[in-house]
Structures are given as C-alpha cells and as structure tokens.
Amino acid sequence: MSTQQLIDSARSVMSTVKDLNAASALLGWDQETYMPEGSAEARAEQIATIDTLAHQHITSNVSRTLADDIRTSVSDGGTTSDRLLRLFAREVERASKLPESLVRETSRATALAQESWKKARIASDFSIFAGDLKKLVELKTQAAHLYGYTDNVYDALLDLYEPGITVAQLKPVFNNLQKGTTDLLEYIKPVRERANDAILYKKYDSNKQLQYAQYVARAIGFNFTTGRVDVSTHPFCTSFAPTDVRLTTRIFEDDLRSCLFGLIHEAGHGMYEQGFAPELTRTFGADGASMGIHESQSLFWENVIARSEEFWQWGLPLLKDYFPEQLSGVSAFEFYKAINTIEPSLIRIEADEVTYNIHIIIRFEIEEQLINGSLNVEDIPAVWNAKMKEYLGITPPNDAKGCLQDIHWSFGGFGYFPSYTLGKLYAAMLRKQLLSDIPGISDEIRRGHFKPILAWLREKIHYHGKTMTPNELIVSITGRQLTEADFLDYARQKAERVYEMS
Fold it and tell me: 190 exposed, middle or buried (CB, 10 Å; 0-12, 13-18, 19+)?
C-alpha cells in the first residue's frame, strides 16, 4: 500500500475505535454525574460490551495485518502522517496482547468497583471496597505480565500512562523531590506564621463559587461552546471529541479552594483536549502525549498561572464582587499568600504544591508493592497511615481521608498517580521556557490576558496530540530531558516570596 492508502485504512479502524471509546466514556461520565444508584450492575454490563467491541475492532485480523504493513513500510520519518501510523501500529500491538475475556472482565470489574468505592468512601470503611480492589489488582497484574516488561512488572503499567518511563527512572527523581521537600519545609519552619490561609475557610455560597470558577475557566480559554461543567464526587475531565469536552468539580461552602482550583485544573485538561489538530479527530492521535504531559497542562494553569501573584492582581477584584463581605480588606498579596501556604495535609487534591509530591510518592510506593505482590490489599490502610506519618508527620483519622480519598484505583488506574508529579516537573520546565519565549507574559497575566499563553501551549503541545512521545515533546520545547531541578527552584522562589524571606 502507499502511505495514503495506509493512512486511509488506519483512519477507518481508528475512527470506529474512537467512537466506541467515546460512547463508553459517555456512559462513564453519566455514571459519575446523573446515573441512579441502582443502575450500577446494568451500567457495568453496558460499558463492558462497548469496551469489548472496541477491543475486537482494534485486534481484528484487518487491524493486525495493517499494523504489520506499517511496521515494514513506514520509516522513522518526522511527518505527522508517519507518526500517526506508527502510533496506530503500537496501539494495535499493545491491545493484541490482552485476550478479549480479560478486557471484558476488567471493564465490568471497574464499573462495579467505582460503585463500591463510593459506598466505602461515604461510610469511611475500606473493607467495603477491598474485595473489588483485590480483583482489580489481580486483573491489572495479569495484564502487566501480558504487556511485558524488562525489570519490574509495574513498569508495564507505568508505560500505559507515561510511555518509556520506568521505576528505575522514577525512584531517583522521587528521592530528590522528597529530600527537596523536607529541606524546604525545614527552611520555612521558623517563619511559618508569616502566612496563613484562614480567609479561605469562611462560608462561601456554593452557587457563587461555581459561577466565579466558570468565569475564570472561560477567561483562561476553556470553550464552553464545545464543553460543559457539572458537579461530581471527584473532579475530572472527559472528552468524547474535541468538540465535546466535559468537566466536573466539587464544592464545599467552607473551603474556597476546592471548586475554584479544581475547575481550573480540569479546564487545563479540557483546553488540551479542545486543542488537537483538526486532522487528528477520530484518530489515536487525538489524545494527550502522555498522562504526565496532560497533567502538565492542568497543573500549569492551576499552579503556575492561577496561583501566581500576578493572576490575583487581576482575579481578586472580580472575586470580591461575588464575596465582598468575606474578602473585605484582603489584598492581592495576602490572597496570594493564603493560596500558597505550605503545610502538610491529609487530602492530595487540596495539598500545596510542595507537599503534594509526597502524596504521589506514597501512592507510587503502595502501587508498586501491590502489583509486585509484596503488599496485600487488606494491609493498605495501615501502610498508608504509616507512610503519611513518616513522610508528612500526620495520620489520617479515617479511611475516607486516607486510602479511600482517590477514585483512581476503582477504575484500575495503577501507574496513573506518578503522572501528577511528572506533570508538575513538566509544568515547571514549561514555565521556564515560556518566560524566555515571552518575556512580558507576567504583565499580560496582570491584565487578565491569557490568550498568548494558550496560543503558546497550542503551538508547542496541544496541536501535536499523541503523535509525539512525552520525551520528544519536552525536548523539542525546552531542549532538555526531564528534570526535577526546575520545580525545586520554582518552589523555593515562591516560598521565599510567600514567607517574605527576601
């Protein structure tokens, strides 16, 4: 076949698979937002059927023959078409390693596990979720062995979310981050009283919080014509097409952070999904380069931009229009300090930028042990609490605020958590490059002009979708390999400003 014939044939397969994936995702979104509680069993079967159909299509004889043709006839050229074809071949090869029965069983198990996780979290009782989680660990371990690995079985699952990354590469980075976090906490310890976040915990009307959060999401560039926002137990972004992107957030009336920063975070994901090159629509290329790169987009907007002092010189006067009494007399600098205090805390998604990475390290260590069989599911609560005490000096009072706080394990997302910290590292590297490429960007942020930032991200990252690997992408933008140094420098600079140390 000619290259064009290969592209046309691959697109035919990919469009069907992407449409089936979108239908499955829509059912999943409904499950998290509006589905009646008693529908879990039926929904599990529906999702399992669609996921099985998608797997059958991508692993068909037609798809495998096409992938073989691509591997023998497509060079390692740098054109988008060549990269898309090689991506297709990789996805077919990976999917073909899993038997249909395992795909169906895993799909059904995750749908059921999400419901038991919700019940367990409400009751703060890990035992309600433990049986379903044990089943998922078994299924994901089986999948990891089928995918194959060189040194560590967990590497096979890491590769699903961050192609090319391994435990051996992550551990030194995480060790440096843990040491850097400990050093920074010690550095600011004598001046902790110079900043506090008390103003964030007054009573803030839920509807007004959501209205303001949506205003900010629109201002930074999320397109509400092709997207929408709902409320769910756990904030997330899902996309059925670049023209149909759904965000959710959660709201607490006594915590101003959760809704606002949760929605900014998910809007970062959403803008990535809305920004793929049009020619990638309904192909495997219409996806993030990796979950780490995807997280870099959400964390870039949530932390680098929306937790900057310049942002609140623009955003605070608008926020005061919604909450004039609660924020009376509060300056932009005081608000900036409040949202950037550094203090060990129980909940990952509400942790500060610095100690957040420790939450990820804990999950990474537990997951690696689970998948390698050196930790039993029943022992997770005790191990979790012990690590929280050792690493952050705090112990969760119950399972809901401990090992049940995240939804990820209920959908079988083993290997996902490291993406969050990788996203922080990528975001810090991108920040450094953005400041170099657009020296006046801080003034633009003060004026609420975010289009130059989004345009830069569109060109450098969004447009390429999944046609470049994360390493190829970050090197093409910054000229450097992944490093934790930029994040540690950024965190120290911000801490010195927040705690008025220079």
Answer: exposed
Residue 78: per-residue pLDDT: 76
Angle of helix 451-460 relative to helix 418-437, nearest 10 degrees, comes to 110
Token couple for 303 = 């932390």
Statement to judge: residues 96 and 191 lie in one domain: no
This prediction's pTM: 0.91
User: Which tokens go with 445?
Assistant: 């942020």
Residue for token digits 């040491």? 179
230 φ/ψ angles, rounded to the nearest 5 degrees: -135, 175
Could you list the residue range(s) of the whole structural domain that residue 38 is in?
A: 3-148
Residue 165: the pLDDT is 93
Tell me the residue type at 222: F
Residue 255 lies in a domain: no
Phi, psi dihedrals of residue 265, rounded to the nearest 5°: -60, -50
Whether 122 and 187 share a structural domain: no
Query: What CATH number is associated with residue 476?
Result: 1.10.1370.30
Angle, helices 3-33/100-123, rounded to nearest 10 degrees: 30
All residue ranges of the chain with pLDDT < 50 are: none
Give one word for 176, left, alpha or beta, with left for phi > 0 and alpha for psi -120 to 50.
alpha
Amino acid at 221: G
Residue 17 CA to residue 23 CA, distance in Å, equals 10
Residue 30: other Cβ atoms inside 10 A: 13
Residue 235 lies in a domain: no
In the chain, the amino acid numbered 251 is I
Question: How far does CA 178 lie from the centroid of its chain?
Answer: 20
- Number of independent structural domains in the chain: 2
CA distance 388 to 392: 5
Distances (CA, A) of 290 to 56, 77, 142: 24, 21, 23
Residue for token pair 């607490």: 252
The sheet carrying 237-241 orders its strands as: 227-231, 244-249, 237-241
Residue 419 near residue 161 (C-beta atoms within 8 A): yes
Contacts of 502 (CB under 8 A, 6+ apart): 496
Quick one: 111 and 171 in the same domain? no
Say what the pLDDT of residue 124 is.
98
Q: Catalytic site residues?
A: 266
- The number of beta carbons lying within 10 Å of the beta carbon of residue 10 is 25
Side chain identity at residue 420, one-letter code: Y
End-to-end CA distance of the chain: 65
pLDDT at residue 40, rounded to an integer:
87
* Cα distance between residue 414 and residue 278, in whole Å: 31
What does the DSSP 8-state code read for residue 165? -
